Amino acid sequence: QAQLRESGGGLVQVGDSLILSCAASGGTFGTYAAGWFRQAPGKARECVASIAWNGGTSGYADSVLGRFTISRDNAKKLVTLQMNNLDPEDTAVYYCATSVNGRLPPRTCLEEHEFDSWGQGTQVTVSS
Questions:
Q1: N or C: more exposed end of the chain, with fewer CB within 10 A?
Q2: Which residues are registered as beta bridge partners of 94?
């Protein structure tokens, strides 16, 4: 299993962009699927985006499709989430996660139970 640390959160305005990064250490990151989740106050944690071990497939929640992009650099052990055209509904704590099952069906946002390592989260607040 990997140890994960997120960074890049902050306070932004509606329509702004933000890039979240997740740095991994330990484990064999290059063989793991990875994902970003978020949890807003009073709501359940939800999948935002997932990516296969080699970046060959990815999937997104309908609410972020076309605005967010997940990518990875296995050499640097990084997973990033490019977030564009942010909306107040995107306000949440964002978590990075990895799964030792590296495969990902196309256009699939994996569920929480599929992941076995989690970061501590980074707050994203979108102000109107």
A1: C
A2: 38, 122
Distant-in-sequence, close-in-space partners of 15: CB < 8 Å, separation ≥ 6: 85, 86
> How many other CB atoms are there within 10 angstroms of residue 21's CB atom?
17
- Residues ≥6 apart with Cβ < 8 Å to 66: none
The answer to whether 110 touches 70, Cβ cutoff 8 Å, is no
CA 6/CA 4 separation, integer angstroms: 7
Contact 102, 53 (CB under 8 A): yes
Report the alpha-carbon distance of residue 4 to residue 29 in Å, rounded.
10
Q: Which residues pair with 79 in a beta bridge?
A: 22, 72
Q: Strand, coil or helix: what is 10? A: strand
